[in-house]
Records
---
Amino acid sequence: MKLYTLPGIQTVVFLLILQLQLANAQNHIDRPPESGKAQQAYPQIAGDNSIIELTEGWEYRWGDSPKDKEGRPVWSNLELESEEWKPMSLPGWAPGRGDNNYLWQRIRLPGGKWTDPSIYLLSYFLFFEVYLDDKLIYSFGDLDSPAKLKFQGTPWHIIPLPADFEGKLLSFRFYSAYYLIGIGDRVYLGSQSGIYRKMIIEDADRLIVGSLSVFIGLFALTLFLGFSQSKEYFALAFSALWIGTYIIRYTCVKQLLFGGPLFWNYIWVFSLFCMPLGIILFVEKMFGAGPKSAIRLLWQAHITLSVILLFLILCFTEEFGIFVLKTVRMMYLLYFVVISVWVGFSAFRGEVNAKIFLAGFISLVAFGLHDVLVGLGVVPWLRPIAHYGMFLFIVSLTVILGRTLVEMYRDVKEYSRKLELMRREKEGMVLELHDGISGIMSNINLLAEIAGKKYKTGAGKKAFSTISTLSREGISEIRDFMHSLDDRETNWDSLASELRHFGSSTLEAMGMKFAITIEIEREVTQPNSFLYLNLQRIFKEAITNIARHSRAGNVKAGLAVTHQLIRLDIIDDGIGLGDLQGKGRGISHMKARAKELGGELTICSQNGTRLQLVVPYPKNNHT
């Protein structure tokens, strides 16, 4: 049997669908029904909501019919009693195909009273024509020109019947160059309104489960993009969106809402490769990369292999189609084993999230296995339930992230409590500094000034003057330190005001002109105590050095704060550092403070002195 070539991606879709149809049909192939079932009688039914399930009374015949003088297939009416017609029942595929690419199937239609009688065809392969007696009433593809046929997906069909259909012979002429051909599932007879009603009722659970999965995926994606860049949210979103889309793809209602059966088949193909990727990413983020990064290597290998397999099946369909399908099955089996072992190990160690994941994962596999066993005939036919397992799995992932959010909330709450304790401790320190050490320094300054008045000249006056000066400097240092501890005063405006005041009062008293420019971007985060104090210390040390050693006439300073960095520039037109560069503790202390801030301090002494401090803006700049 020779296969004709379909366009690449269309063939991908078809071959993958073919595998599922094979599984569902396995228990019916090569098992013809007992004799006499072709004459099965159906009860007379009335009412537009009533539907007949045409499972018995079918006959099939291999090959294609000759045509009469008027071009009508002879088998559509004339040879009703030929021994070539064999009885069969649905669901199931006609046995004994051999090398035939054409198949005829027929049934004598029972009676019924409907407003708009129609045939509802769900599962079939691949192209067909429908005859009522010898009259063509419906077609899907041009069966007389098979070389020109292109895969159009496998949408369901509602085939209108005339009002006088009762007792007439309904014949299907099929063409397929693939393993499956003909009708494989139940065929329904009823009114169009009844068929749509049945369609909606049977699809309701899939639509609800699929839509909920998509909603969970969109919600997780919103959290990932808007509130958290944690990859576990992306993994949940990726898994839920593709699983939800996969479930919706198996509904019939989607064809009414969105149409495009070929589009939905493409979506289905990609979902087969995308669903495992999201699951593996989630496992890595929640339970670790595994020994020797096995889980990380697994999803990286999955991406690489998926690209290769899609390339092979698109470019070399006939040569590698079956190989790709077998590889996909082996990939799924490998993922099941690796994920079960790794997460099971975490669950054995008592991790609650691992136990929740395993519960959902086992539901996913068990419900899917049930549908496979139904297809193989091992268990009786029931409604498919794999979508329930998929949804339970998505719910388990959501519960895990919900638990993570709750734990994060508890951590934030505990952190806030500790911050409040620290704030109270700082307020206590500020109070102690103000009432204790600051008061003592003020008293020392006062006593030194009183004692110094008794000495007009000599060493005594000089000593008390020195004590008074040092005590005032000490009071200033304590005040600065108190400001840095007070959260209400550690802001850029306060820092700019202090730098301007200190520079002016220090340098202008020495006869130097001082100017400072402040540029702070809008909505930039306020400095924390550590940053505030160190910027202040570096600036004061630099200004003090200029006042003592530079002999400058003009000093310019600039503070620029953006969302990316903080830059402090101080320039004077003095004599430069000369032999002082690299000496003294002042410069080394400034460089040490710059290093603690994660920045760099550079000093250039040429035509004066230029000091520049560049600090990356702290990511966690909060008090």
Note: Residues 386-452 form the longest helix (67 residues).
---
Amino acid sequence: MECLMSLFEELKRRNVFRVGVAYIVASWVLLQVADLVLEAINAPNWVMQAMLMFVVLGFIASVIIAWAYEITPEGIKRESEVDRDKSITHATAARLVRITIGLLVTVVAIIVLERFVLTPPGPVAPQQAQTAEPVPESGPVVAQHTTEKNSLAVLTFVSISSGEDDEYFADGLTEEILNSLAQLPELLITARTSSFSFKGQEIPVTEIAETLGVAHIVEGSVRRSGDRLRVTAQLVRAADGFHLWSENYDSSSGDTIQVQEDIAEKIAIAMDVVMDEKKREAMREAGLRDVEAFIAMQKARELYAKAHDVSYGIPVLREANEYLEQVLELVPGYPPALEEHSDLFVHILNNHVTGIPMVDVNEEDVDEAREQMLVDVNLALENARNFSEQNEYEINLSMLSNNWRGILPRINRYSEGSGCNNPTWSPQFALPFGDASAYAQRIAQVTKCDPMFSNNWFNESRAWIWAGEPERALEVARQGMEIAPGNWLRFSRSWSLIVLGRFEELENVINQDMQNRANRLMAEINRLAAMGQRDGIEPLLAEILADPEIGGFVEFLAHARIGDREATNRIAAQIDEDPFGSAALTGLVLWCMCGAPWDLEVTPNFAADLEEGGLHWPPPSPIKWPLKDW
């Protein structure tokens, strides 16, 4: 024991400990600066690895040198050559302490620089909310929903590197985590559209949570440099900003999937989910599990959203499909990619049969679209990962293939279920032919899950109109316009006002909100038709017919609502002759909201499909159009 104490005292006297501490701190500073510089110049990974090796070897050398040598007024000498009475190790010790303190100050400066200067803006942490600038009145509006204690939103991880695909990589990693957590029935996960809507905005986490109606937020950051990967993730309780869990990951890009899975599982455990192998397997199956695939998927989704935000989206959907095909090559049979890939072909077929102009589509494209659409939807169904997804794809396939037998039981199963999914083509059957009230309540769940997606508010508002609750439909439309405004929501708001007979208010809404020319013309025709004023409609209808870009869909709806039976029969009969005709005609029934828009006998194919599906005719008319007398 005395020998150990003697050795310890000698190590202290020779400043071995102080040299070791100073070396470690100095090495950390050196490596952090090198990390930033090497990342900026895209240096290969081996450079950093070599530096780390030299630092480790240097530590061993510095400790040996501190033991064997001593600094004296005459220079560095071997310790055995220095007279103990003339030793200045105490002065050297004081100098080492000052150097170490200076290095520690540098460490703090680097941490502050990296966290608050070099990191791009992201959601503001709760404790920073008091100093944040006030959010203007036009900022996010809180969705009026009860917050569940097991609710959670995964915000987009901030990319703090500047590689070509680094932002898509961060988005893809975020979506993989979100999809994994969404498989756990114990958790209520906000859908992608809403979670991603706050990307790049400096909004306090507490405010985001309140807007989304969730109790917890997951946020993080991602840095890539060559093959190196650094991910930071944390789970925050929105009520008080407490971090329930956080962790840093330093690994290689090859470990991305393992990092993503570990983050998702640890978040689930922090949320008191009891994990088992069945749940882990469901979480693994939910994602792409391929880095290149989820980068391509993010690029496709960016274009997919853009295509649905422009008046003519077919060229953009074609670009999106190029990336979706990359995804399907890497992960064959991935259902979400197949469903989105089919959307281009549905647009081509629907535009073709309803007379919407397409400048870059020929007959060969139309023939190919019919085949490819069914290939995609069938494959999506074959690869469905759970019962809910299977039912969703069965509804879509029934609609698009004109095989409507059993469609209403599938719609009913959907309405009785839960979750964030909404089969794309379900409104065509649920509202004119099914239980509109049950469907509206089901869509209200979807809106709660994904409140920043405007189409959800529109679908819910329209469903309440079909369910005979126009006041509720108007309230949903107004709240949706505050939270996630969109062109279609303007229509559901105007329809609600028509049903309620508030025509003066409707006129103001049209003049103030309907900026798109075709939408404004259609809305004004609707107002006049609902008031029974045929005279004012004729010039507006002539304007629609004179514009080839507006297309036959709007023309048909106008004819139906003013009671032009001959015109609607003629157009419906022409559509019925097309193989995609029955699917297109269900869309006209849904959007017309006018009961039977044509005489059933002029559409024999559609009539046969109705009979096969056990669907009643005529459907109800949620809006009364006095000029239509049949």
Note: Confidence is low (pLDDT under 50) at residues 118-145.
---
Amino acid sequence: MTYPLIAEHGLIGDLQTAALVATDGTIDWFCCPRFDSPSVFASLLDDRRGGRCALAPVTPARTTKQMYIPDTAILVTRFLSESGIAEVVDFMPIDRPHMVSDRRRIVRAVRGIRGEVEFAASVEPRFDYGRRSHRLHVDGTTAVFDAGDQSLQLTSVAPLERDGDDVRSRFTVRAGDTNGFLLESGAAGSPQRIGGGEVIQLFLDTVAYWQRWLEQSSYQGRWREAVERSAITLKLMTYAPSGGLVAAPTAGLPEQVGGSRNWDYRFTWVRDGSLSVYALLGLGFTEEAAAFGDWLRARVEERAGDGSGPLRIMYRVDGSSDLTEETLDHLDGYMGSRPVRIGNAAADHLQLDIYGEAMNSLYALDTGGLGEWGIGHDGWNHIVGMVDWLCEHWQEPDEGIWETRGGRRRFTYGQVMSWVALDRAVRMATARGRPADLDRWLRERDRIHAQVMTKGWNDRLGAFVQYEGGDVLDASLVFMPLTGFVVPNDPRWQSTMSAMDRTLVDDSLVYRYDPKASPDGLPGSEGTFSLCTFLYVDALARAGRLDDARLTFTKMLTYGNHLGLYSEEIDPTGQQVGNFPQAFTHLALIGAVVTLDKKLDTQRTEMMRRLGTAAGLIA
């Protein structure tokens, strides 16, 4: 069995689902028709049983390169050899993305650039994570894979041949030639043959969509390419009909290759989505921020949580809350990393921090971030109920931000974000004269602050710690200055950062915590957490350590893949591990850049002012 590295992939999508394309031209992950639907191609999780759509030269290319067409999500995989150069252009056309539909299309166009290159293609769908068989009908240049309530149509320029329940094709492209395929689900009727003009129009329409969308960006800073690629990647991971942002489009990719820390991230976390509001508003993407605000407002109003309080920590992309976890024991897992899990048992966790993240984003939207977007009377009553619940429960032990399975504790981060929830609720009430038990909210807010400053602080370490009475550091606490709980130059915070430098930072990369010092109930180890590294950059910049912040950020950019995409973690060898790409990481990248740019601009302005003053004195 052979598996590509996790980082050796690009992402394409149509705002309802997405696919991974490896640098060898194989689509090895594709769920249909939604992000959280069962897979059709999943050879990334089992090379034999998962299914794939492969497209590559018959004679392996000496060199392969992968790139995006600028300012788009159209992926180009280039194959270079002595006999010629050709490229595969992959994209998913976007048509009425806000309307729920089973229709998904993947275009795979092959272009000859120089000389001649013979290609081999194979389409091997394995429906329902490889658990469901299908019937196949092939007719010249079209094929239909029928799995009962789901089917996939294939239309090709070149003739197709049946190979058992799969389809294969071989063709040669010369300089100027175009060939390729259209894969389509949810289509009505029989597959229609495609002409070159139709594919070209789909291509032009898709280019125009992405370039128009990116024109909304207001970012003009130092790291424009990284920021815009992160923005496009986040857009690709957004389910347009609801506005929900998936944590990642994949499931089962391991945090440690060969280990069991393999989770399903194809859902919308309240935490991740709430943080996206600030990133999107900071770049000028107000429509996406409003869409998630609507999604979050609906979750607050429906109160679907049980043991987790009024909110659940995560939901399906449509807002439903059935995330029952199960294992796919028939799949080998990526490079033998088992079990492969779908669903997520952490959905039932109590994680108090989500109330702070939710209220922080609702506050941003309600106070003018989107003009007239706001919380109405009924919506405010639901918020009051949620905040009153938090007043009664903030001091309870919870599972914490990292969703460990080692039991509940009174995590400092959960209390900090509970303070944020109450603080933002007070501000929302007073800014618009809304009815609320302000005395109670203010009293509980101040109690939380005092609790964190006493029981969340360890005098021996000179640092805020992971949980009450503990002696373990936690990178989530970098949110303390980011949310205003402490000021960046507070001696306690400066001391905490120094302690983090010694224990959590490894050559600019940041661990979220030390599993050996704070057992999380899971076997194996993990790498550094890319989210935490970018948050650390943000905290360094706010603390005035601009040289450290800029160097750490520059180093971190080298860990992105060839397209600027990031998974969840970096292993000890520098390889990306975990689900890919991860929204949280790209959100934190954008946040770090916005803060770092602002601080560097301020520094430069101050330097120029001082030079001007000195020149005036000399004159």
Note: The radius of gyration is 25 Å.
